[in-house]
Amino acid sequence: MKNTTPKSKLTRIAVSSAFILFALAAIYLVGMNMMMARMNSEIPTNLDYSTTRTSDHGLFRVSYASSLDVVPVNQMHEWTLHIETVGGQPVKDAAIAIDGDMPQHGHGLPTQPRVTKYLGNGDYLVEGMKFQMGGWWLMDFTIAVSGQNDAVHFNMMLK
Amino acid sequence: MKTKNYLSALLALIGLVLLITSCSSFSQTKWNEDELTSLRSLWIGSLKPLPADPSNKYADNPKAATFGQELFFDIRFSSNGKVACGTCHLPDNLFQDGKPLAHGVGTTNRRAMTIIGTAYSPWLFWDGRKDSQWSQALGPMESAVEHGGNRTLYAHLVIENYTYEYTALFGPLPDLSNLPRNAGPVADPEAAANWEAMSPKDKEAVTRIYVNIGKSIAAYERLLVPGKSRFDRYVEAVANHNNEAANAILTSDEIAGLKLFIGEAHCTNCHNGPLFTNNDFHNTGIPAIKDLPDDVGRFKGADQVLADEFNCLSIYSDAQPEQCAELNFLVVEDNDLIRQFKPPSLRNVANRGPYMDAGQFATLEEVLHHYNTAPEAPAGHSELEPLNLSDKQIEQIIAFLKSLDSPINADDKWLTVPNY
Question: Is pLDDT above 80 for A105?
Fold first, then answer.
């Protein structure tokens, strides 16, 4: 037989309400975390954003420097690409193919940049660099020297 | 006692929930560093001074601008004497016409774009088939459905009506009295045949006048740049940490829309910078119009600008070849270019529907619905992905877009039709 006094009824209502509110708060927090996780999952974690990288097959160490302090959005600018052997010897007479894309968006650069000049000491002038939006960019340089081919990739996060 | 404890726990939980909720709404009006960077980049104060146009040495000549304004509104420069640039680019309607397809002497296949701020764009038209304001101005003048005329007609009209203005800028005019009234590389067979029959020297003399018409119109159009909107005043208040002023400038829905615009809705992928456009080209899956010819957008426009007789590398350009960087590093014949179109500036966007390259969408609601659902492109590859925004969020973005009404930052004399 149930013995329901007003007091115990109030207690049960309070407990139930507390659980409901707690559950709502939990759902809210989990939802927020899931949303953050979904947003973050678009860009691989631990991407290497360094401006000096070794080529895929380890033939070259390559670095780039922009003519502007911060790589800009919507502004044509130049890069200097420095290529050296892993032993530190500058590489000259390289044929360099350039490609860039935004892996999340499925489109590339608005321009077709190219090497226009060898500056000496393993440095190559790249003209026609332009990015049309912020976000994660992947720049690919395919390098051919004396019958040897290798490619290097730079990740960039533009704002 | 027990009940009291439960009640205390209940109150604490209610407090916790309220705290979380209030933090959430609080974050709607506070901006983190990345967001502030975005706001600053969109602010009109970030607009750089007018970029030089090395292809037009008259670009910043005030006399050329005055002459250009007269030409811009002169309806005699058309096959039927009724169409000027200002017919579709109306000064009291944001230099556009509010129609899905532009009407000159006939009907075009595209929507007339506004002229405001185009001095900042390396590419003109929806497909970027022109690379300067002056070469753009010459396109419609020889189009069979826009002005419908031809360059020899226009040269005659300059000699008959503007000898003083022209010679003050460009030197003596040649004697063209022996040339036919109508001649030019146009669709009209009689004018085309007359053009073919002309000597290279006469063609060159006529084309020089035609080019100078374009360069003068461009000198005028350069002056039409946008001014400060409510959004810009909001950014200034935020930058000055004046939250009270900021919240008086934009409503909470407009602010929420702005937050979505620079965040979850990814609008700034293309609509970035102080003109809210990257002036590049994108396929966003805009539906094709059944009754119009297939339109591949930038795919064709890139080839056209490279072959254009008036491009930056042409003999009519005043630029050195190395100053034509956009053309020198142009992307052509890439399938990514299929059905790419230029994102227009969003300043004044709420007042210049219908939207898209052929006015496919009548309202901003339709535009936002398209971006929210991201349908497949009729050709090529759409860059969109569904946003899954709620109706409320869409309303907020539209509310924000209405804060971008920007007056033209030019003296009133440039915004009126001259007396002829």
Answer: yes
Q: What percent of chain A has pLDDT over 90?
A: 68
CB contact burial B243-260 (16+ within 10 A = b; e otherwise):
eeebeebbeebbbbbbbb
Q: What is the pLDDT of residue A11?
A: 58
B331 contacts on A by Cβ (under 8 Å)? 108-112
- Residue from A9, A21, A136 whose CB has the most chain B CBs within 10 Å, to mutate: A21
Give the residue from B94, B98, B113 showing the smallest Cα distance to B362: B98
> Quick check: A110 and B280 CB within 8 A?
yes
According to DSSP, residue B19 is labeled: H
Query: Are A17 and B10 in contact (CB < 8 Å)?
Result: yes
Which of B22 and A59 is assigned the larger pLDDT?
A59
Alpha-carbon distance B420 to nearest alpha carbon in chain A (angstroms): 41
Q: A107 pLDDT band (50/70/90 cuts)? A: confident
- B257, B300 contact by CB (below 8 A): no
Cβ contacts (< 8 Å) between A25 and chain B: which residues?
A: 13, 16-17, 20
B interface mutation test: which of A107, A112, A116, A127 has the most B CBs within 10 A?
A107
Here the tokens at position B380 are 């090529």
Tell me whether residues A132 and B278 touch, CB distance under 8 A. yes
pLDDT category at A42 given cuts 50, 70, 90 is confident
Chain B contact present for A24, CB below 8 A: yes
The nearest CA of chain B is from the CA of A35 a distance in Å of 11
Omega before residue B354 within 30° of 0, cis: yes
Q: Which residues of chain B have pLDDT under 50?
A: 1, 16-28
Separation CA B111–CA B286 (nearest Å) = 13
pTM of the model: 0.87
What ipTM goes with this model? 0.86
CA distance B351 to B398: 12
